[in-house]
Amino acid sequence: MAAGNVHALSRGNEGNRSRSSMSPEEDDLPPMPWFGMDIGGTLTKLVYFEPTDISDIEEAEEVETLKTIRKYLTGNVAYGSTGIRDVHLEMVDQSIGGRQGTLHFIRFPTSNMMTFIEMAKSKNFSSLASAICATGGGAYKFEADFKREVNLDLHKYDELECLLKGIHYIDRHNIRSECYYWKNPQHLQLCEKVPFDFRNPYPYLVVNIGSGVSILAVRSPTDYRRVSGTSLGGGTFVGLCCLLTGCQTFEEAIELASEGNSTNIDKSVGDIYGGDYDKFNLKGSTVASSFGQMISPEKCQTANKCDLARATLITITNNIGSIARMCAVTEKIERVVFVGNFLRVNTISMKLLAYAMDYWSGGALKALFLEHEGYFGATGCLMEYLRLGHPHIISPDSSSRPSSNLHQVKHQSTPTATETQTFTSQNCHQNSEGQGQLNSEHYQSVNKSEHIKKGSNNDHEDNQNHNKYNNHNNENGEVDNNQSNSEKDSGDHIQNGGHNVIQEREQDSSHKVQNSDITDNLSQKNHSMLKSRITTNAKYIDHFIS
Amino acid sequence: MTDKSYARSIELPTESLFRNLKNAKQFAIDIGGSLAKLAYCSTIQRRTSMVISYEIFQFCFQTCSDHVYNISETEESILRLHFIKFETKYIESCLDFIKSNLFEFGGRSGLSNEKCIKATGGGAHKYKDLITSKLGVQVDKEDEMECLITGCNFLLNNIPDEAFIYQRHGNPEYRFQGVNHDIFPYLLVNIGSGVSLIKVESESKYDRIGGTSTGGGTFWGLGSLLTKAKSFDELVELAEKGDHRSVDMLVKDIYGGAYATIGLPGDLIASSFAKAARSPRDRNNEDVAKSLLLSISNDIGQIAYLQAKIHGLKKIYFGGYFIRGHPMTMHTITYAINFWSKGEIQALFLRHEGYLGAIGAFLKGANETQDDASFVWGEHFAGSSGLASPKCSGFFGKPRSSTFDMLELDRLGKPLLPCPLLLDVKDYFPDTVDLTVDTDAREYWLQCFANGIEKVCSQAIKSQSNLPDVKPRAEKFKSKYLDRLQELKENPCAYGSLTVRSLLDTSSQYLSELYFTDPYSQQKQFENEQAVKLLSSHLSELDKLDWHQRQLELVQGILAGNMFDWGAKEVCKLMETGEFGFKEARLRLQSRPWLFDDFDLWCKRFSVKPNHKCAVIFCDNSGCDIILGIFPMARELLSQGTKVILCVNSRPTLNDVTYSELVILVKKVAAISSQINDALLSERLLVMENGQGSPCLDLRLIDYDLVNTMKKLETDLVILEGMGRAVHTNFQARFSCDVLKIAVIKNKWLANRLGGDMFNVMFKFEKARQIASSASNEKS
């Protein structure tokens, strides 16, 4: 019902001429279905936008092919023998290009690409669209196959740009907290997942662990660079585990690793020196040589699969952590965001990375993680395809829009609609304090209710932390907005199509920053936003574990 | 010297491994997971000729002698360091062997007298009890890193061409780094089972700045799990045959080509082992081993580069058993460093990287028992193994690296310093032709030395014809040296830069190793005596000439003298006739203009005031050369008020006059020439040793006292005489003072190369130079 309202509103707005002249993008949007595809070395990641605001009339008009695809994708969680929809990651009530809908996250092995192309052919995809958007290496590799088999052009988008856009989009629009870190990673019992406010992220390092590893230094939406990488990544982990244990898949390998003990495989400092190496402050338990015990033929014979898988995982993870840490030092960046499908169902690696970053940097570096581990490239690709510009540019508004939070819907279904409307249609006029205040009040009220509901005192400390973050964010926000201004002048980073609105939004946000009242309001907003995120945290950890 | 001691010349295989064990002392051991390195010091007693002046001879032996000086055979003691590398699994039998040998021979100063043995490396802990029980000594554990660094500093400071850059398919494949007088700071990446990165800022200041557990143990361990290889070296052999592209996912496997926007080439490995997941059963051992080697090498290279960048270090040395001279490993690490640093930093490797820990542990012990450890050490090529070449096989016909490897260093005495008159020490490279690069020259010289071996052998036999085992020893010299030449043919880079100098020096070392310390001693004695007899009349003839004529005659005298070179095979033929004298030699000389003829320029300089303050003459040969060539020139210089340093070899080689000989000879000459006598008494003429024992001259490493004297006397003229010192080496050397380079080209091939012919003359006079920057400073 709420969705219906939204739909009606946005449809109504679309009829408004003055608005559409400001925002021509929706007129130019490509026809459904909307996909973003990231074809990696091992996995292909697919993000599908399922419109949920389809009116009866539209449904009647919807071509059969489109409906088939929609029903097929949303009606299943597994496709063929290898395609999987990550249901727990789906993002409902997303407003994209004026449409409401759900983002679905699907993956399948790139080795099955031809099957996928066959399927697209059998579903008569090319009758709907002449192009499909893709990023990742496979966008180049399979371009000819798509053309030949299904007569589809591949719109190719830059991998790194897609990745960053995806990160920012999802971080802003996930109703649950997207970004988190591991607190007390060295203690099995005390270790816990804690949300992290990532709205003003710059500068940060992205360590994308797919088959291989890419490390990017990101200083602003447009200032990013691939600074390093390593070929020892997820592909190495799976490949080695397959060779060492005879397992077939990443999941199996992780399963084995979770049962294993690498100390039977590795050689520790203690194994070599008979204890700690005090001179260099190396603990006896520190791994001195990964797989070092396997130089003994007897131990080779008796090594157990789980232990081998564990040692492989630890080796790969530690190595990535070590390189990431050094890159952070050379780039003088303190926040390191680990993404990529290597981290899927892989808390061992995440905790290890968290621990390693903290330990070896003496607490200077923070390892951050994102829920949608491997789907940022595909998501960013979809955003690029829909010419939605850089999500960061719209962030001040979008961040104050946890509108579609599942369990908050009852509180705010109507404000959500207003929010959306404000965001899409009135944003350019939104330089009045009143508007900001309104939003702020709204969030405070949400916050209160959440707080009461939860009835927890534990949040107090977190509260202070988040205040700290907020202050920090405001400083950064100012810088970023100024940057946006100067970038606007050059204008080259904005994809054509949607740039009018985007520019005005930028202008708008820079106005706001100059207004201290609103800055405060924003800060409060951030605060309350975080509160609501924290309350959802517990629930979503459960989800994660399941 | 008794005949009995020569019995040792028939060696047991073990004796060729643990050489001179009966004199061994000061044991140290570095026990790694796979390789153990034993170090000890021995005193080498060897026969050498000793020259005794006539007066002393008469006094000692109460007999008369006709000789200008007398030669006596004596035993000299040389301190030698031995380092032997073997697989740790042999440690017990090695300890047994040491024990039995030391006790069997009574161990004069052996282990029985020692209280402790220094031990380092991971295995020091594990094998401590075994060592104590076998040898009955206490084991002192020394810190591994400290030993590594001490060892690394020691090698970099002492051994020329210790460090090199590896360039696969390059010419040369190994680019040696020469002598480095300024080694700090550097990053040492020690790749043992794990990897340690150590920043070294001075002899005593260093810090472990990082490490990784992905090291040699990982390669070996994973390799053992994934392939059928039974040992580390088998694994590397497999890797050398493999093709990683069936195992690794390359950029082009993902992209279909290169990833152009961020500059990743298509062949770059995107994900190591990623293809193995798809069909793990198709993998062959070789491909997996290759992929493993590449991934670990790349990884270490990357981590080393990042640390170097963080700490602002430009020199990165790689050591540890993982490298072990394996070309593939060095190549991948070099590639990684080059890739990540965009060519700014080059990976450096060490020829003796396996010995760092053992050297360090040994020095630790030596420092505790000796007051002065600041000796200079030189590589004893004859007793050392070269860099492993894939084509080369070592002892017992097995690949060398899997059996035993040795390094020997001889104590050279006083510290050696660079010549202060070189224009730019950093820019100076002694050798004219790098035989690792110049294939034609290499083929010629290797063949030339092989051809000349009979001549060297017969001279050696002649010098000790009274000894019964002289022939077997000479044969042994022949076979060993020919083996070495063959090894160098296959792997020219095995012992550092390959040059005419290194070939000559190696020959001398082999001779000396087989107790032919000074095969030309009698020859030199004879020639010196003959020449001294001619000196008086030669001098008076010179005195009759006018100034200009005399200058020409003086130079031609040096040139004629320089003909008497037993190192040049064409001249040997002439000299063996016995009818080749100083006058005959003069007639053979090229007439002016010479091939290089700066005589007029020299006269012009020589005729104007102020005269040079001090000239240092690096002398060649004996007999006519030194007596009739050099001394008259020295006399002329002295008469102009120029002080003269006659500088000769410290140790014998070929027929080059040695310091101990010249000290006596100069007195004979002084008895003939009053000018020489006066100069000698007033210390305007000095005889000094150069610290070397080579027919060539490496001005990077000359005697400490010589350097100081050269500075003190404000030396402003350098005279380099002979092919060895002025053509094979120093031909391109630039000096900050005037220099004369004088030689007769006595090798047809070389003469042709220089655009001339046999017996052509090189007389180069080069005015003092200034480094470009300082010159422009003066102008401004």
TrEMBL record, chain A:
The GO terms this record gives for MF are: ATP binding; pantothenate kinase activity
Positions with biased composition (Low complexity): 10-23, 466-485
Q: Which NCBIfam families does this entry report, sorted A to Z?
A: panK_eukar
GO biological process, any: coenzyme A biosynthetic process
> What is the protein name stated in its UniProt record?
pantothenate kinase
Q: Which family does it belong to?
A: Belongs to the type II pantothenate kinase family.
* Biological or metabolic pathway of the protein: Cofactor biosynthesis; coenzyme A biosynthesis; CoA from (R)-pantothenate: step 1/5
Please note every region of biased composition (Basic and acidic residues). 448-465, 502-511
Give its E.C. classification number. 2.7.1.33
Note down the stretches annotated as region Disordered: 1-33, 396-524
Q: What species is given as this protein's source?
A: Lottia gigantea
Instruction: Choose one Gene Ontology CC annotation of this protein and give it.
Output: cytosol
- Catalytic activity from the UniProt record: (R)-pantothenate + ATP = (R)-4'-phosphopantothenate + ADP + H(+)
Q: Does the keyword Protein biosynthesis apply?
A: no
Residue stretches of biased makeup (Polar residues): 405-447, 512-524
Superkingdom of origin: Eukaryota
Taken from the record, one Pfam family name reads: Fumble
Keyword match ATP-binding: yes
> Record's InterPro entries?
ATPase_NBD (IPR043129), Type_II_PanK (IPR004567)
Where does the record say this protein resides?
Answer: Cytoplasm
**Keywords on record:** ATP-binding, Coenzyme A biosynthesis, Cytoplasm, Kinase, Nucleotide-binding, Transferase
From TrEMBL, chain B:
Domain of life of the organism encoding this protein: Eukaryota
Gene Ontology MF annotations: ATP binding; hydrolase activity; metal ion binding; pantothenate kinase activity
**Annotated TM spans:** none
Annotated keywords: ATP-binding, Coenzyme A biosynthesis, Hydrolase, Manganese, Metal-binding, Nickel, Nitration, Nucleotide-binding
Record keyword Hydrolase present? yes
Q: How does it assemble?
A: Homodimer. Interacts with PKM.
Main role?
Phosphatase which shows a preference for 4'-phosphopantetheine and its oxidatively damaged forms (sulfonate or S-sulfonate), providing strong indirect evidence that the phosphatase activity pre-empts damage in the coenzyme A (CoA) pathway. Hydrolyzing excess 4'-phosphopantetheine could constitute a directed overflow mechanism to prevent its oxidation to the S-sulfonate, sulfonate, or other forms. Hydrolyzing 4'-phosphopantetheine sulfonate or S-sulfonate would forestall their conversion to inactive forms of CoA and acyl carrier protein.
Query: What protein does this entry describe?
Result: 4'-phosphopantetheine phosphatase
State the organism of origin: Lottia gigantea
